[in-house]
């Protein structure tokens, strides 16, 4: 079982004729994802990896009965591509693009509040249900089907923690990379709710980092709502205050919330077992199962 | 990207926000000439991007030519919190009776822009936010509509701004929001917004941070970026190479892919008793040349005693990384600092075959790699 995506998910790839879109569409197909169409304005009628390309997401979704979209569109045009997905028949959009201007995402965020479509990302590795489907750029070979749900703000940290799990034979229901940008669609709380409500997810890993207050909000939600055991990891304990560590979101304001310690404390208070290393996170998960 | 005060003031003035008249100068003579032109009293202000310039002696108020010369001479060439001052702004001193704060930023928690007003201007507004959050009135804005005039008025009256200047302050706030919106601001602030004895409002300082991701559509602002304004040489080099890089105090150099994984590597260095020398994220999909540049960066830092490479490939490929490491190291007769490499994920096996293992130490896991690098640094240190 899984959340959000499985082998029935019918996927449109926006930007399938570009370098990234083409390569990763191929990788997704190889993994077994049901990629049914591409959407690129002006490229309708072409084929990529044997998949028909349409000029609009709307056409692609109608003609091929697609219900999800993955966005591999350069930053300058990415917000428009997300708007297009939100205004089409697909009910899940996954935006991989890194570097979308924050004000564009604020407008996307406003639109999200008016539609039923779910957005994952942007600036994220995507979502994978091992053995069934991956929507995004995650390396499929490190994942294994199983009973642990994983949600993370960082792509490469996701891979690290998953490999620590898989090496011990612990598989995953679904892994969701929510992205590290200041404004994202699906967040920790949304993902935790999905895993809590999934009968096949027996334990959850949550990987956060410094900046923002999403982890603190997630901790409050876990306290209220989540009975499934959760192991956590927070990256950036050694980040100096006031310095920007890559993501625009990863800024420590100096004191109070947003620091690694405030997040770790909030999670511990909510009963989450926070590991000092990815290996320790796997230890906690092993003890839950 | 942060604009200098003189740049932000120009941008604000062009948008119609009242600012004091001012001139930029890079010599003492020019500063004095500018002061004469503007008329005393004037403020002479160091143009460097550090907080607390006033307290650190970087802003001086002067009443005549002799004082202007003395102040300009003292400020030009001084080091303010480690940054060399090579330009001053000579500015008309404002005769004020009151100081306000106005600002616009993105509220990431709400995912919406927020405009702020406070009558507690002229002080460290972050402290006010912490100690007395109600002293700052916040007005969230629907980014698809922009700020309505009533919202600016509501915030200003709510904040208790004096009635006779309230309309002008509301107008400044709305202009500031529009500017922030049009120019892809991350933050735009005026602190203080001064109320003069003539009951006019004037922006005595100006702060504008631009969203780096939006610079492609802000060519005018992108041109304002200059590296000449001091700062860390290595950080300037990182900018040139296009890396996310932060210099730290320790001696273990860290190179990895993805902010979360690199931060985790830093944390593990600390966890195993070492001290990180830097954060360096080569980003996604790095080719060999980028990897070579990354090693060049870290080797250029004389504090570094040992280096750890931690790559978990998704979009990044292990074979490309290995090729880059080889290229960087094969040019040396003697490798400057010991390098530990951990490769996982996409094409890691190909990478392991390519990697010249005479030049580096290979570890399979993150934990082992970090511990080895910490041990290497300790050895060099002894």
Structure notes:
The complex is a heterodimer of chains A (289) and B (382). The radius of gyration of chain A is 18 Å and the shape is globular. In chain A, strands 3-4-2-1-5-6-7 form a seven-stranded mixed β-sheet, sandwiched between helices. Chain A has a seven-stranded mixed β-sheet with strand order 9-8-11-10-12-13-14, sandwiched between helices. Helix content of chain A is 35%, strand content 22%. Chain A has helices at 19-31, 57-64, 75-86, 102-112, 155-167, 188-197, 214-225, 260-269, 278-288, and strands spanning 10-14, 34-39, 47-48, 51-54, 68-71, 92-95, 118-120, 126-129, 133-136, 145-152, 172-177, 203-209, 230-235, 273-274. The model of chain A is unreliable at 245-256 (pLDDT under 50). In chain A, β1 (10-14), α1 (19-31) and β2 (34-39) form a beta-alpha-beta unit. The radius of gyration of chain B is 25 Å and the shape is elongated. In chain B, β10 (185-196) and β11 form a beta hairpin. The model of chain B has no long low-confidence stretch (mean pLDDT 91).
Task: Describe how the helices and strands are arranged.
The complex is a heterodimer of chains A (289) and B (382).
Chain A: E1 10-14, H1 19-31, E2 34-39, E3 47-48, E4 51-54, H2 57-64, E5 68-71, H3 75-86, E6 92-95, H4 102-112, E7 118-120, E8 126-129, E9 133-136, E10 145-152, H5 155-167, E11 172-177, H6 188-197, E12 203-209, H7 214-225, E13 230-235, H8 260-269, E14 273-274, H9 278-288
Parallel strand pairs in A: 1-2, 1-5, 2-4, 5-6, 6-7, 10-11, 10-12, 12-13, 13-14
Antiparallel strand pairs in A: 3-4, 8-9, 8-11
Helix pairs in contact in A: 3-4, 5-9, 6-7, 7-8
Chain B: H1 5-14, E1 22-25, H2 28-38, E2 42-46, E3 59-62, H3 65-75, E4 79-80, E5 83-84, E6 88-92, E7 96-107, E8 112-118, H4 125-131, E9 137-140, H5 149-159, H6 163-182, E10 185-196, E11 201-203, E12 207-210, H7 219-223, H8 233-241, E13 244-247, E14 252-256, H9 259-271, E15 278-281, H10 288-299, E16 306-313, H11 318-330, E17 339-345, H12 348-354, E18 361-362, H13 366-381
Parallel strand pairs in B: 14-16, 16-17, 17-18
Antiparallel strand pairs in B: 1-6, 2-3, 2-6, 4-5, 7-8, 7-10, 8-9, 10-11, 10-12, 13-15
